[in-house]
Design a protein that fits this description.
The complex is a heterotrimer of chains A (about 160), B (about 750) and C (about 280). By secondary structure, chain A is of the alpha+beta class. Chain A has 2 domains: about 80 residues, Ubiquitin-like (UB roll) (Roll), CATH 3.10.20.30; about 70 residues, [2Fe-2S]-binding domain (DNA polymerase, domain 1, Orthogonal Bundle), CATH 1.10.150.120. Chain A contains 5 helices and 5 strands; from the N terminus they run ββαβββαααα. Chain B is an alpha+beta fold and about 750 residues long. In chain B, the strands form 7 sheets. Chain B has a 7-stranded mixed beta sheet with strand order 3-7-1-14-11-12-13. Chain B has a 5-stranded mixed beta sheet with strand order 9-17-16-15-10. In chain B, strands 18-26-27-28 form a 4-stranded mixed beta sheet, sandwiched between helices. In chain B, strand 27, helix 15 and strand 28 form a beta-alpha-beta unit. Chain C has 3 domains: about 45 residues, Uridine Diphospho-n-acetylenolpyruvylglucosamine Reductase, domain 2 (2-Layer Sandwich); about 120 residues, Uridine Diphospho-n-acetylenolpyruvylglucosamine Reductase, domain 3 (2-Layer Sandwich), CATH 3.30.465; about 110 residues, Enolase-like, domain 1, CATH 3.30.390.50. Chain C has a 5-stranded antiparallel beta sheet with strand order 4-5-10-6-7. A 4-stranded antiparallel beta sheet of chain C has the order 11-12-13-14, with helices on both faces. In chain C, strands 1-3-2 form a 3-stranded parallel beta sheet, covered by helices on one side. In chain C, helix 5 packs antiparallel against helix 8. The N and C termini of chain C lie far apart (about 50 Å). The chains are: A alpha+beta (about 160), B alpha+beta (about 750), C alpha+beta (about 280). Chains in contact: A-B, A-C, B-C. At the A-B interface, helix 2, helix 3, helix 4 and helix 5 of A face helix 1 and helix 15 of B.
């Protein structure tokens, strides 16, 4: 039984093992942003509707605002900061740049993580499957078309 | 000619940061010693504040201050871009659901939230006014104290301002057909994915304010006045907004955080929840009655428009929205006689503010729908009736104002072609087509400084706010075009009033034209200096040297700019600095304070299918064509136009803020305020631009990014009507509303 | 949210000891997609949150046993939609599970949670009802199993007693062919809550079963034993009368999502469409 207050937990974030104390009532989103300084993941609706806070937990895309930080104990978390390796952009990031998919950019980390999870499950999705896969990521700037084109282009480039 | 210059779909400047999570939005800025602020508001629309008890709240560990109106300078300071009516905290009464009554500042977010819940606000719920009829009823309560407008004959009413525009004599105009209808446009909210956030910190005798504000210099001016400080002591840092759409143009809670920062002597940080953001900003709703007089052949005899906008509890910039949009209410048509009466009406609801389109979507919804109905009665094709009335390039359509600045018929024909207007409509479907027109700024001022550094790289200073429209990229492309610097060697500095020279504002799609011209002129100053350099180095008269498009043209050949630069700067090194200015003076005799710098013209056409048993619409094809002058960056133009179209589909098909009988918002938050998702797209969405190089900006640019939002609603409604026979005059066209209209069909 | 204690029991017995100790001040946490929204909105303020995800007996996933498919309590929607047996035997359930939020929600939201949250608009419940789902409830003293139809009481209310928790949802493996569909009406095509939802199952013995959601205090079942609905050849007026009788048991309300009138009308429209589709699926089975 953990008293109300701090709990020690260990999890892996973008390949690095982290041990820290978290408040039981803080969400994974809170801890990523406020304690680990990983501000790439964004807060918007805070109730699982907009997808701005999307991260991968053990390979699956989730809304980090709907997870208590303590639930992530022992898990592997992937955030947008982990998509590039050694300064090299990943194929999705590259495609998003090429297709002009980022406008204000605020929804983009979430879109990238959802797309990452989508392509991991379904390497060559159709347009409809991309739409379905990203339906939980709201964008107010774009018509979603350039984001969709970017995901399809990334899929193609990886599978060539 | 630079590879990243005009007309190239250059990589977005700032794109790399956005795809790596490195872009710093306001909430990402680390402010380690900041106090966290949490607002206290009532869960009712309008209430008299009887007493605020902060004792329990103050005792929460970590709480530094609980501020109420009583803790502010008396009388409580008021602010606003048009009228200084909004108090820093509610005074005596909350006038809308969510108006802040108090604010807690504490060491942690948790402490601030806990304390905010312990503030006890004794209050008495009062009847609220939030419909046009109620607001205009002389027996209804007044939203604003008459004492705030002492010399205003309308001060004893809920009408903030009344505007009368027009020409000719509508009442004696002969018309073969008069169509009169009333159309309504709902309350919708911006729903930028980044909620609002504000920070402030004392800075010596001055203050630093962080806000993702679209108008940093107007904020600076306002805060300096409010705090009694010189401009030089007020520094506004404006990070790129995570979407704004007009909702981040004008001050909202910056004054409050500033007062808290000065009181506590600490940096303070306030990040709104999405719900609080919905309560802070919205578009003005409207009830618009249009009487359109037609001659038998479909040409217009007159347009008689009464536009009543419910603007909310404080004016913000809403009256400007009302006047500027209503002035153009007749659209780009030859209208022999016009009468426009527009009212900005106060209501006990969220103060409305600028929102992409600035009142034009509301007017366009009414006018275009009414035009369609006239066409229907007269048996004239809806494309044909528009082409018949559309003014030609260079033709005046509002006496004494800017004439049409484009071949608008070209955009209309292109849209018609892309939707295959002349082909038979497939069974069970309908088509619609509508036109939108908005004016750019009527006055304005932008400065820019450009520095060409010793290694040929460049820095551009621009006070524009890049909220996703790609302003940084446009200005970098101009520098690239003029000085030959590759885009990845250009740094664009924005968002700091201490470092970047003055820019009036980011609004009205003005930045490519106004700031773009300032940047261009700054580059031209540098080109002149390079010319002098080359003249000195080569011993040739300057008049024989031309510097353009990144090269120095000498009588006997060409040299790269960087070559001349490096030779010319030797041996001390240094840099070249150029300043540019774009100024459009207003005209005090003009009803809007100035004529339009340019127009944004859009034609939108759709083909829809309606499930007549459920009312659900399926958009088979959606086409949007804009008259852009020149697409400085085609991929960015497409992105903005497509985004605007989808945003338009939002208010057309699904968005509306729902109030209960007391004026309280019922659908706060993302679960019940629906915006389009990736599954709500038309099956085919096509955006196109007409480029005739006829804009006033660099390379013939016109402003863009609002056009594609303007005629969405009437284009879709027109298609729904063709498919079902039902005329619907209220938005949004939800499945239930369409179904209801079908039930009521004779 | 206000601070609370957090417990992560390893066994059902441990979980139930906590429930016995804390009673109504304990909140069970599985997927969290409803609970965290309630915590944020302070609609629930527990002293302890009991995380069930490491409870051994609850992580068995989806297993076939004794003529039924047993879906353990921590199984998430994505597990269901991807399971071959669920897809084969219960296509209407897959259709329903597939529209519970976005993939981010479905990767966390549990079937048991959707049932226990007992929203009148819970997407999976109509499908579970037509397939004859049963719920296994466990307490420190006993385990019982009852039909889902008997488990749900009203909005947010089930028959769960103090100290009891759901450990599995069981679906009988069909012994004869049937055709079943799920449908709903929403305000937009993207993620949404149901304005109305329904499931229709046409059995090869001629029985037609409907389950309706979001049109009553709880989702409910109605059945036509006469056989007319299942028979396209039967008299059209008889069929229409039978269908109207089915939907007459609904009591939709007007709220911010839709009016009662629209909901009732959509029930009629969607029932007819779902019935047609179910008959087609039976024929194909």
């Amino acid at each position: 039984m953990i008293p109300a207050g701090a709990l020690a937990m260990t999890f892996t974030v973008n390949g690095t093992v982290r041990t820290l104390e978290v408040a039981t009532h803080h969400t994974l989103l809170d801890v990523l942003r406020d304690q680990l300084d990983l501000t790439g993941t964004k807060e918007c609706c805070a109730e699982g509707e907009c997808g701005a806070c999307t991260v991968l937990v053990d390979g699956r895309s989730v809304n980090s605002c709907l997870m208590l930080a303590v639930e992530a104990d022992g898990s592997e978390i992937a955030t947008v900061e982990g998509l590039a390796s050694d300064g090299e952009l990943g194929p999705l990031q590259q495609a998003f740049l090429d297709k002009g998919a980022a406008q204000c950019g605020f929804c983009i980390p979430g879109q990238l993580m959802s797309a990452q999870a989508l392509l991991a499950r379904n390497p060559l999705p159709t347009v409809d499957e991309v739409h379905d896969g990203l339906v939980g990521n709201l964008c107010r700037c774009a018509g979603y078309q350039q984001i969709t084109e970017a995901v399809l282009a990334a899929a193609e480039s990886v599978n060539r | 000619m630079s590879a990243d210059g005009a007309g190239v779909s250059a990589r977005r400047v700032g794109g790399h940061e956005r795809v790596t999570g490195q872009q710093e939005y306001l909430a990402d800025i680390r402010q380690p010693h900041a106090l966290h602020v949490k607002l206290v508001a009532l869960d009712v629309a309008r209430a008299r504040i009887l007493n605020i008890d902060t004792t329990e709240a103050e005792q929460v560990p970590g709480v530094s201050l609980v501020m109420t109106a009583a803790d502010l300078p008396q009388p409580v300071p008021r602010f606003g871009p048009q009228f200084q009516d909004r108090p820093v905290l509610a005074v005596g009464e909350t006038k809308y659901h969510g108006e802040p009554v108090a604010a807690v500042a504490a060491e942690t977010k948790d402490a601030a939230e806990a304390a905010a819940r312990l503030v006890v606000v004794e209050h008495e719920v009062l009847p609220a006014v939030f419909s046009v009829a109620e607001a205009l009823d002389p027996g209804s309560p007044l939203v604003q104290e008459p004492g705030l407008r002492p010399d205003d004959p309308l001060a004893g009413t809920n009408i903030l301002r009344e505007h009368h525009f027009g020409w000719g004599d509508v009442d004696t105009s002969a018309a073969d057909l008069v169509v009169e209808n009333t159309y309504t446009f709902p309350i919708v909210t911006h729903f930028a994915i980044e909620p609002h956030g504000f920070m402030a910190a004392p800075d010596g005798d001055g203050i630093v304010i962080w806000s993702a504000i679209q108008h940093p210099y107007l904020l600076q001016k306002m805060m300096a006045k409010l705090l009694g400080m010189p401009l030089a002591s007020v520094r506004v840092l404006a990070p790129d907004p995570g979407g704004a759409f007009g909702g981040k143009q004008n001050a909202k809670l910056e004054p409050l955080v500033a007062f808290i920062a000065l009181r506590t002597g600490r940096p303070v940080r306030l990040i709104l929840t999405l719900e609080e953001t919905f309560q802070a900003v919205r578009r003005a709703s409207a009830e618009i009655t249009v009487r359109t007089g037609f001659v038998e052949d479909g040409t217009l005899a007159f347009q008689d428009i009464e536009a009543n906008f419910l603007i909310g509890a404080y004016a913000d910039i809403a009256d400007r929205v009302v006047s500027k949009s209503s002035y153009l209410g007749c659209g780009p048509y030859r209208t022999p006689a016009a009468r426009i009466l527009a009212r900005a009406i106060l209501s006990h609801t969220t103060p409305s503010t600028a929102f992409r389109g600035f009142g034009i979507p509301q007017l366009t919804w009414a006018r275009e729908s009414n035009l369609d109905e006239g066409a229907h009665v007269l048996g004239i094709d809806r494309l044909e009736i528009r082409l018949r009335n559309l003014v030609a390039d260079g033709e005046a359509f509002i006496p004494g104002d800017t004439a049409a600045d484009g071949d608008w018929a070209q955009s209309v024909r292109k849209a018609a072609e892309l939707i295959k207007w002349d082909s038979p409509v497939p069974a069970g479907r309908g088509r619609g087509l509508a036109i939108g027109l908005k004016s750019g700024p009527t006055a304005g001022l932008s400065y820019s400084t450009v520095r060409l550094l010793a290694d040929g790289s460049g820095v551009v200073y621009s006070g524009t706010s890049d909220m996703g429209q790609g302003a940084r990229t446009i200005f970098a492309q101009i520098v690239s075009q003029e000085l030959g610097v590759p885009l990845d060697r250009i740094s664009v500095v924005m968002g700091d009033t201490a470092v970047v020279p003055y820019d009036q504002q980011t609004s009205a799609s003005r930045s490519s034209v106004f700031m773009g011209t300032a940047v261009l002129r700054a580059c031209q100053e540098i080109q002149a200096q390079l010319c002098e350099m080359a003249s000195r180095l080569h011993g040739i008269d300057a008049s024989e040297i031309v510097v353009e498009n990144g090269v120095v043209r000498l009588p006997d050949g060409e040299a790269a700019i960087v070559e001349v630069l490096q030779q010319g700067l030797a041996p001390l090194g240094g840099e070249l600095v150029g300043n540019g200015e774009m100024r459009k003076q207003g005209d005090p005799d003009h009803p809007l304070g100035g004529s339009a710098a340019f127009f944004e013209f859009n034609c939108t056409a759709t083909e829809v299918e309606v499930d007549q048993e459920t009312g659900e619409t399926l958009l088979h094809r959606y086409v949007t064509v804009g008259d852009v002058g020149r697409a400085m960056n085609p991929i960015q133009v497409a992105g903005q136009d497509e985004g605007a179209a989808i945003m338009g589909l939002g208010h057309t098909l699904m968005e509306h803020i729902i109030l209960d009988e007391s004026g309280r918002i019922q659908n706060l938050g993302a679960i019940d305020y629906r915006i389009p998702t990736s599954n709500d797209l038309p099956l085919e969405l096509v955006s196109a631009s007409v480029e005739n190089g006829d804009g006033p900006g660099p390379y013939g640019i016109k402003g863009i990014a609002e056009g594609a939002l303007l005629p969405t609603a009437p284009a879709v409604a027109g298609a729904v009507r063709e498919a079902t026979g039902a005329f619907i005059r209220d938005l949004p066209l939800t499945p239930e509303r369409i179904w209801q209209a079908l039930q009521e069909r004779p | 949210m206000s601070p609370f204690q957090y417990a992560r029991p390893d066994t059902v017995a441990e979980a139930q000891t906590l429930l016995a100790e804390f009673g109504s001040e304990a909140s069970l946490l599985a997927g969290g997609t409803d609970l965290l929204v309630d915590l944020r909105g302070r609609r629930v303020q527990p002293r302890v949150v009991v995380d069930l995800k490491r409870v051994a007996e609850l992580t068995s996933g989806i297993e076939e046993a004794d003529g039924a498919l047993r879906i353990s309590a921590t199984s998430v929607m994505t597990d269901l939609t991807e399971d071959e047996r669920v897809r084969h035997y219960y296509p209407a359930l897959v259709e329903a599970a597939a529209v519970v939020g976005s993939i981010q929600i479905r990767n966390r939201a549990t079937l048991a949670g959707n049932v226990c949250n007992a929203s009148p608009a819970a997407d999976t419940v109509p499908a579970l009802l037509v397939y004859g789902a049963e719920v296994t409830l466990t307490s420190l003293s006993a385990t019982r199993r009852l039909p889902l139809d008997d488990f749900l009481v009203g909005p947010g209310e089930t028959v769960l007693e103090a100290g009891e928790m759901v450990t599995a949802i069981n679906l009988p493996i069909p012994s004869r062919p049937a055709g079943a569909t799920f449908a709903r009406v929403t305000r937009r095509r993207g993620v949404d809550l149901a304005t109305i939802s329904l499931s229709c199952l046409v059995d090869s013995d001629g029985t037609t079963t409907f389950a309706y959601g979001a049109v009553a205090p709880r989702p409910f079942l109605v059945r036509d034993h006469s056989g007319v609905l299942a028979d396209r050849g039967a008299d059209e007026r008889d069929r229409e009368a039978a269908l109207r009788e089915m939907t007459s048991y609904a009591s939709p309300i007007t709220d911010i999502r839709a009016s009662a009138e629209y909901r009732q009308a959509m029930l009629d429209v969607m029932s007819r469409r779902a019935l047609d589709k179910a008959i087609d699926r039976l024929a194909a089975a």
